[in-house]
Amino acid sequence: MSHMTHRSFFMTALSTVLFINSTHELQFRLVLTRILRTELHCVIRSQIEDTRTSNPVATRYILDKFQPSAKSYSGSAWPF
User: CA-CA distance, 24 to 21, in Å (whole number)?
Assistant: First the structure.
């Protein structure tokens, strides 16, 4: 199955599931948002690791820019 065919099939299946089970659409969106945030967290963490050895100042900037204040959340500094 080609990439576009696979994507089209996935989107059709997803649309069908959301249509049939529309009461859970909000819950699905929340789960999807959490997955995307986790992916973003992984990308940022990778950037920090790549930068840490070569440029400590840039590392501090990335941390200050993207990592939420630990005071904003209970538990981990990352909300996800």
Answer: 6
Q: What is the reported pTM?
A: 0.32
State the sign of the Cα–Cα–Cα–Cα dihedral 15, 16, 22, 26.
negative
Q: Any idea where the domains of the chain sit in the sequence?
A: 22-70
Which residue in the block uniquely carries the two structure tokens 């065919």?
5
Tokens of 47: 């950037």
Q: What is the DSSP string of 38-69?
A: HHHHHHHHHHHHHHHTT-HHHHHHHHHHHSPP
User: What's the pLDDT tens digit per position in 12-63?
Assistant: 777 766 666 666 666 777 777 887 778 777 777 777 676 666 666 666 666 6
> What is the tens place of the pLDDT at every residue in 65-79?
666 554 444 444 444
